[in-house]
Amino acid sequence: xxxxxxxIFTLLAAxxxxxxxxxxxxxxxxVINLQTTNAPSLIKTEWTEEKVLMMINDYRQKKxxxxxxxxxxxxxxxxxRLAVLMQYEDSLGEITGLTREEAVEMVxxxxxxxxxxxVLGFFRSNDLTAFWTTQENSRQTxxxxxxxxxxxxxxxxxxxxxxxxxxxxxxxxxKATTRPSSPASASWGGPDLWVAVNNRRVExxxxxxxxxxxxxxxxxxxxxQILDLGELDAHAGFEPTLNREDLKWISExxxxxxxLVSGYSTPQESVAAWENTxxxxxxxxxxxxxWGCIYAQNKFGVAIAAY
Length: 307
Hints:
Blueprint: H1 2-20, H2 49-62, E1 69-70, H3 72-88, H4 100-106, E2 111-123, H5 128-132, H6 136-142, E3 149-157, E4 160-170, E5 176-177, H7 190-203, E6 210-211, H8 213-229, H9 238-242, H10 248-253, E7 256-262, H11 267-275, H12 282-285, E8 291-297, E9 300-306
Parallel strand pairs: 1-3, 2-5, 6-8
Antiparallel strand pairs: 2-4, 3-4, 7-9, 8-9
Helix pairs in contact: 1-3, 3-4, 7-11
InterPro entries: CAP_sf
Keywords: Membrane, Transmembrane, Transmembrane helix
Protein name: SCP domain-containing protein
């Protein structure tokens, strides 16, 4: 009984935090990059729950799957889960007790299937569904044929946004779920490394790189390949990625190079390693490169540069 009361209190408190805003309540929210993003754009785009759902549905329709309709109960649960993720970094509900399933059940949503998608500190100019599809668990959730409804929570923060989506199929008999979204945190990420690279390029007297979203797709895929391996692959996955049917057009349009780095404590140390490694200094001093994108997580970095 007491345990249930505490969980109800947590749910209500979390929803209040999202509704009124973290800053207005005077909470000190840690900056956590649960999923890595690339460089910020100067163009700010406002993201809403409706826009995120539209993107999810566009992706599903292209796959021949049914569109999802908004569900108010799932939205309430999503707001609570996003607050828990942002304030407590509690992706599994181990700290607050507010697991994904608990949040859904406490708002009275009966489901036969439930899954979730999460991203924190994601630059708003990026392709959200393209990023989710580079992760096997998230891709499976997006492509689950049984899904019918969705609840989405969005919190904007400057150039970045944090999103949590609950996708479900109503029913009384629980059949299946995916494992909860639990992206790893990083002390520094793609945006930090992007700034460090462009700062060094300016110091070398060449133009800073400009972001291209299609290059970010390649960087995201490559980073996830490397994270799965747990080590650099000596560019073994680069050519196969470029030769994918859905990505071929990118290498036909641009001359593309890849630069990898791992194991350094700061973006500046990573840049210094590139500068002092044969063949990698061109990322920093090569005036031929015009566009680029960088993804980084857990001390692994992937830079894609092109002209």
